[in-house]
Amino acid sequence: MMKKEIETVLTKLGFKKPTLIQQETNQLISEGESCIALAKTGTGKTLAYALPTLEKVTKGEPNSLIIFAPTTELAVQIRHAINPFIHALDLTGITLVGSGNRQRQEDNLKKKHPEVVVATPGRFFDFFSSNRIKVEQIKTLVIDEADDILEFSKMELLSSLGQNLLPHAQILLFGATESEITQNAAELFDRPFKLVDVRAKQSTTVKNYFLQVDNAHKIDFIQRLMRLDHFKGILFFDSNQTMMRFAGILGHTKTKFGLLANEFGKQKREQALSDFKAGRTRLLIATDLAARGLDIPGVTYVINYDIPSETNTYLHRAGRTGRMGAKGYVVTLGDDHDLRDLKKLLIDTTQIERVYFAKHKLSTEQPKEQEVGAKAATKTVQPEQPTKKKKHKNKNRKNKGYHPHYLKKKEQK
Predict the structure, then answer these.
(1) Residue closest to 253 by CA, chosen among 233, 223, 298
(2) What digits encode the pLDDT tens for the residues 85-114?
(3) Tens digit of pLDDT for each residue in 326-365?
(4) Please, what is the Cα angle at 153 between 150 and 159, to 5 degrees?
C-alpha cells in the first residue's frame, strides 16, 4: 500500500493512473530488488523509481537515497519533480551539481543532513572522496539515464561505488535504451539484477519523418517548420562548432530562439530553458549533452540538423517529443545519402517516412507541383557556376543578412 502522504500529493498534482513502467517496477523496488528498468522516454520513469524508494527512506538517516543524473539540468529537473513528495514525507533533499556553489553545497550536507541527494557524478565523487558522504550510509543508489551516464563519467568510479555498498543496498538503473552498463550490470556492480523492459508494450504517438534538403537551404526549411501550427521544437546538432556557427547565422535573420551550448554557464542555460518553457521562444537549439534527459512539456517537433551517429542518440532526441502520450514529430534533414544512412541506422527500431511541404503543411504525399523552395532542395546539387560580380554604386552598403550558401562554404573548408 502506498503511503497516504504520497497519495495526497499525486491527487493534488493530477496523477490518476500509474504508467506501465511504474506498474511493472513498483513491487520489485519496494521489495528491495536491484533492477534494470527500460522504458521509452517521457513515460514516467522518474516517479517509477522515486515513489517506492522515498517510501522506504527513514527520517534522520542522511544520504540514504542517492540519485545520479548525467547533467546539471536533469539533476535539477529530477529534484523539482520529487520535491513535493520529499516535503510530504517530512524528509530533506539537496542537489549536488558541478555548476553550483561548492561551499554552499558542503554546508548543506553538514547542516541539513539530507536523506535524499540528487547529484551529477563528478560533484558527488568530489564530496565522496573527501568523506562528506560515506558508502555505508547509502541504502539505495539510482542511476537515471543509465544508458548515457557512463559515456560522460568514469565507469570505474561508479562500479567501485556499487561494489562497495552494503550487501543489502539496492541499485536501480533506469534508461530508455540498452548500453554497456545495462548489459554488464551484474559484473560491474557485483550483484544480481532483475530486468524490466516495457518498451515493446508501449505504444508511440511520435511520427518519424525525413525532409530532403541540401545544406544550403536547411536554414530556410527550419524557418518554414517554425511557421507550422503549434510548433514548439528542439533543433539538435552533432557538433557544437556547427551549432554555434548556425546560431550565429540564424541570429542575423532576427529569428527568436534559445541556445543550450556546452560552454554556457548555468545561469545562461537556465534562462534559455525558462524562455522556451514559457513560450517566449519556440525553438531551442542544442547538442545532445546539453539537452540530455530534459522533460519540457509541449514539445511538438524534434529536428535533426544532421544524421545522428548512433541509434541511441536518435531515440533520445526523439524522446523529447510525444511525452506521456502527446503527439509529436521528429524531422530529420538531409539528402538521399542521408536518408539511406538513417534507414540503415534505425532498421531495427524506427520506420522513417518521407515528408514534403505542401501548402504550408507537412505531407507524406509528394505534391504534383513542388513549391519553389522545395524544388531547389530536392534537385541534385550542381557545382556553382562563377558569375560576374555586379558593380554597386553604394560602396558603403553592408550585407549583414543571411546568405544561403554561407554555411555550406564554411563546412567545406
Answers:
(1) 223
(2) 999 999 999 999 988 899 999 999 999 999
(3) 899 999 999 999 999 999 999 988 999 999 988 788 999 8
(4) 70
Structural domains for the chain: 4-201 (3.40.50.300), 206-378 (3.40.50.300)
- The pLDDT of residue 150 is 58
Q: Taking a C-beta distance cutoff of 8 angstroms, is the pair 118, 93 a contact?
A: yes
**Closest C-alpha to 284, from 245, 313, 257, 249:** 257
Indicate the pLDDT class of residue 405, thresholds 50, 70 and 90: very low
| Closest among 134, 193, 184 to 159, alpha carbons compared | 184
Cell 527500460 locates to 38
Cell of 336: 538521399
CA–centroid distance for 128 within its chain: 27
- What is the model's pLDDT at position 291? 66
Which helix (H) or strand (E) element contains residue 72?
Answer: helix 72-88
Q: Comparing C-alpha atoms, which of 102, 412, 47 is closest to residue 266?
A: 102
